[in-house]
Amino acid sequence: MTTNVDPVALSVFIFFFALVTVLGFVASRWRAPKNMGHLDEWGLGGRNFGTWITWFLVGGDFYTAYTVIAVPALVYAVGAYGFFALPYTIIVYPFVFMVMPILWKRAKANGYVTAGDVVYGQYGSRALELAVALTGVIATMPYIALQLVGMAAVLQALGLTGELPLAVAFIILALYTYSAGLRAPALIAFVKDIMIYIAVFAAVALIPSKLGGYANVFASADAAFKAKGSGSLLLDGSQYVAYATLALGSALAAFMYPHTLTGIFASNSSNTIRKNAALLPAYTLLLGLLALLGYMGHAAHLNVSSPNQVVPALFQTLFPSWFAGFAFAAIAIGALVPAAVMSIGASNLFTRNFWKAYVNPAVTHEGEAKVAKVTSLIVKIGALMVIAFLPTQFALDLQLLGGIWILQTLPALVFGLYSNWFRAPGLLAGWFVGFFGGTYLVWIDGLKPLHAISLGGAPFTVYIGLLALIANIAVAAVLSSFKTKVEVAA
Fold first, then answer.
1. C-alpha to C-alpha distance for 456 and 85, rounded to whole angstroms
2. Which residue in 413, 344, 365 sits closest to 95, CA to CA?
3. Phi, then psi, of 352 in degrees rounded to 5
4. Are 380 and 174 in contact (CB under 8 A)?
5. Tens digits of per-residue pLDDT, 258-304?
6. How far is residue 244's CA from residue 232's CA, in Å, rounded to a whole number?
7. CA distance 116 to 138
């Protein structure tokens, strides 16, 4: 279905989308080896991505289309609290600098493709490997669905409604990912990121001038928050702990996801990862500018039914049609890159840590690549069906849980890089407590990520993922300590 289609904006959108589609298929020949029938080649690009390719790829799958839509939407809705994404994306890079080169060396030396491979290689526990792999897959599925939410927002702004345009876009994505593997999103990420930078810098430079300057932007946002009785330009004192713990927990979880780990494992050296940890904060600057669009939405007095419509509405209202089409194409392409990497990361987990571990231990390299390709198609179809047949809020709630879930894999994946003290049974028990305990807290708090705590004074709220992680580590430490004492006694 189509309603109120702007032919100029739609034409520009189609041009850039077609350009990216061509690049996606060309990618199968870009730096292609003689044989793509190997999971290292299809799923990790031959572990041969240098500094710039890794920068665009990791940035592309970390700062997604849904980020472009959701961060300004959150700032539009609640104000300063929505800026938690900024400290989160600052804290994460020292963690990447210190931990990820060590993880990369372990994976490279042993031919590991997934977090599950690393865990099994360290502890020799199929149960712990399966827990980590399953967590990765189920945390990734709603993340892919949310990329569709971001793409649907711009398609709706273009006047394209219904599931057909979305389905066509993801069928194209599925086809070139099937043929080119990780090389497709790596090549497309160059175009996507350049387009996003152009759109955001143009927005923050030109929109305020059309709205009376930044002083009026902030004044309008402040007035809007006061009028509705919620939200503010500055954090309230009761929000400090929630804001800080949400930022810290999100930072620790960010590079536990299969798609971000895929970008790490695809790097050609540990030094490449360190360089990217220094360079990637440039995206945080972009994110900060992007978040300001939420305040600009109030100054523009937009009439939107959902905060997710703020960014498309700003471009549509304040820019000529051709540039709106360009910005919408940038956001839509921003959905394709992470969705492709996410589906590859999930399919790598299924292939290595389920198919090879339980179904066909003797599977060849070519067999692994075939299973991964088919799985990547199924993952994309599953995400599309979630958006088509279930309420969008369902994907949002699952993604909220996904961050809490994936954080519980950190002890099993990271601790073994530095020490052999922890034991698999303890880590598995810790994961169980963190995973299901965190889920329970989210459930009783009405599917909110924050839990109120009172320690004798005024109550404060804390990010549930961090609470679950603390319980996870405590259980793992106690049981590992008991196991160690038994071993020493024996």
1. 30
2. 413
3. -80, -40
4. yes
5. 999 999 999 999 999 999 999 888 888 888 888 999 999 999 998 88
6. 17
7. 14
